[in-house]
Amino acid sequence: MRELLMGNEAVAMGALAAGVQVVSGYPGTPSSEVLETIAKRNPGNVYVEWSVNEKAGAEIAAGAAYAGARSLVTMKQMGLNVAADPVMSVNYVGVKGGMVLYVCDDPGPISSQTEQDTRHFAKYAHIPVFDCVSPSQAFAAVQAAFDFSEKYSTPVILRSTTRVCHACEDIEVPEITPPGDASGFVKDSKWVIFPRLSHEAKFRIAAREPKWAEEFSSFTEENGDPAGNSVTGNGRVGIACGGVSFSYVQEAIAGHEEEFTVFKVTTPYPFPKSLAQDFMDEVDKVLVFEELDPVIEDELTCLVGAQYSEEFLRGKRTGSVPAGGELDASIVASVIEKETGIKTSIEHADYDGKPDLPVRPPVLCAGCPHRASFYAVKQAVAQMKRDNKKLEADKIRYEDAVYCGDIGCYTLGNAAPLYTTDTCLCMGAGITIAQGLDHAGNGTVNFAFTGDSTFFASGITGTVNAVYNQSDVIICILDNSTTAMTGHQPHPGMGITMMGGRSEPVDIAKVLEGCGVEFVRTVDPLDYEASVATVKDAIDAKGVRAIIFKSPCIAIVKNDGPSFVDAEACVGCNKCINELGCPALIPKDGKAFIDASLCTGCMLCSQICPTSCIRKEAKA
User: Fold this and answer.
1) Hey, CA dihedral for 111, 112, 115, 119, is it positive or negative?
2) What integer best gives the mean pLDDT of the chain?
3) Residue 437 contacts by C-beta under 8 Å, 6 or more apart in sequence?
4) What is the rounded CA–CA span in Å between residue 256 and residue 357?
5) N or C: which end of the chain has fewer CB within 10 A?
């Protein structure tokens, strides 16, 4: 039957159609929907899990592939860094069942720390990569990737980007039937990565890559492979492109196709050199469009060598195409017009005379417990500074407290008026960055913030390191009972699995105690006075201290009803607005006002109001 599928859903359905048996991964935008779709459309005997991090997920998939099962592991581009250890090694060991790593890059970046092009990693790891062009092509590509993986006993990377992940297309989906049983694990010394075996494998890998390049030169749509490369058109201007950029090119040259020859690259590594050379031999000039890095462009440059001048090949390296961020049809059209003089049918938007869109920076949701946690920490530090408690004795400058942040919704603690995120590097790094500051003799109170899901993913290691190396840090775990930033996926602290089963939730406090943390306190961040008191106790103590700020994300609990401001009692001090930054609190007629459509009734504002003019709406 035909279904309208998002790109990630298409990958999921393609994997099910290919007979995938084990699926693992860690949530990360823009990749998350693949695993969720497989769990929802499970034909009955496909094992699915959210792993604690990408490294664990990749190792689960490798183990399943060793046993002859087809396995899929999903992650975003930053997650591939976490999974790098097993991924760099599994190609040397090889696999029995097909193993596909679905990695989604985030041009822009829209929801990531940095841009990162997975095609480079594939080349670095000597792993072949298929590039998703559209949802329908992605549906076919994941099946081709499984076949290629089993044919050559190698893992395969299936790379996508944000717009392909979240675009939708009408796709013919076959009936999904449960996969057969895996052939089983057979003991063999090849599964153990000894140095001698790795040395031999390197020669084997190097020898097969030129053969793959030739095979990919005939892996084309013209030869009946819907996921393959293609060369279309007979124009004298060549366009080489890959991924979603192919769709932008199609849109940009619509109505002028006869003037172009388009080389669509779906297997950027190993590069289909013979097909590329044939393409370049037939054109007078080549423009290259791709997200993110000039991977295709560099491969073509290697083929061109000294035969042609720079005028023949134009792309990111020549400054003709933007070096970073997303492309779109308008950008492609403007480059074509500038470089070739060919007028396209794309109308460039004219915004002259129209008002600018309002600036809308990201902000913590109204009622978010993280706001309360940050505020309590900041106020505790300020009060201890004011009281000058132990200032001379310990030479601690409370006014110089450093707040080490982490990856998640709580990164937004950096914004006004909270200003409680001074550093943010990568998942779990808040805990270890704080240790580095401490060991450098920074002379500050060093706070490390992390979320509950992030604690399980990569925070436990940093905690053990802090205890072992006798650091003086305060770890603040913002436990909102979900993985909020990526779509509320479950994690070990919730006791809910993607297979629908329930397990005993992993108790964060017990984990901390097991790691050797002696000061462990749990407090509701929406209880302002108790939270401030707990933070003060932590500052007074020494060594590794941990505070678990536990309150569920407002997106997963029932709204408690809005609060309201008694306008007659309000003196217009705006303390609630200026210190909390809650989007539900706004000034109106010189007074504070609560937008009932946003307010969740958390009542944090009422606890800091000097005139007690904020109250709960009476329930009918």
Assistant:
1) negative
2) 89
3) 402, 404, 444, 446
4) 34
5) C
Residue pair 96/61 in contact (Cβ under 8 Å)? The answer is: no
Work out the pLDDT band at 101, boundaries 50, 70, 90: very high
Say if 450 falls within a structural domain.
Answer: yes
Domain boundary residue among 521, 550, 579?
A: 550
Distance (Å, whole) CA 532 – CA 270: 57
Could you write out the DSSP letters of every residue in 344-389? -SPPPP--TTSPPPPP----PPTT-HHHHHHHHHHHHHHHHHHHTT
Considering the domain architecture, whether residues 524 and 568 belong to the same structural domain is answered as: no
Supply the Cα-derived Rg of the chain in whole angstroms.
Answer: 28
Residue 360: predicted pLDDT: 74
- 86's CB contacts (< 8 A; 6+ apart) are 55, 58, 59, 62
The candidate with the shortest Cα–Cα distance to 363, out of 574, 581, 555, 562, is 581
Q: What is the β-pairing status of strands 614-616 and 563-565?
A: antiparallel
CATH assignment at residue 312: 3.40.50.920
pLDDT tens digits, 194-215: 788 888 888 998 999 999 999 9
Distance of CA 168 to the CA centre of its chain: 20
User: Which residue range(s) make up the domain with 424?
Assistant: 369-550
Same-domain check for residues 328 and 380: no
Q: Which residue has the tokens 């190993």?
A: 270
Is the pLDDT at 446 greater than 70? The verdict is: yes
Give the CA distances from residue 282 to residues 15, 265, 326, 513, 557, in Å, rounded to whole numbers and listed in that order.
37, 17, 29, 69, 62
Token pair 């005993």 in the structure block, residue: 504
Tokens of 301: 């440059």
Q: What is the DSSP string of 307-330?
A: SS-GGGEESTTTTSS-SSS---HH
Q: Are residues 173 and 132 in the same domain?
A: yes
Q: Which helix (H) or strand (E) holds 517?
A: none
Residue 181 token pair = 């049983």
Tokens of 609: 């109001």
Structure tokens at 350: 């004219």
- For residue 388, name the pLDDT band (cuts at 50, 70, 90): low
DSSP 461-502: HHHHHHHHTT--EEEEEEE-SSBTTTT-B--TTTTB-TTS-B
Q: How many CB atoms sit inside 10 A of residue 392's CB?
A: 8
Q: Does residue 154 sit in the same domain as residue 249? A: no
Which pTM value belongs to this model?
A: 0.81
How many domains does the chain contain in total?
A: 4
Q: Is 200 domain-assigned?
A: no
**How far is the C-alpha of 171 from the C-alpha of 150, rounded, in Å?**
25
The percent of residues above 90 in pLDDT, for the chain, comes to 58
Specify whether the CB–CB gap between 61 and 71 falls below 8 A: yes
| Across 20-48, average pLDDT | 92
Burial 291-323 (b: 16+ CB within 10 A, else e): bbbbbbbebbbebbeeeeeeebbbbbeeebbee
- pLDDT for res 197: 82
Mean pLDDT of 452-471: 89
Q: Are β-strands 313-314 and 285-289 bridged in parallel, bridged antiparallel, or unpaired?
A: parallel
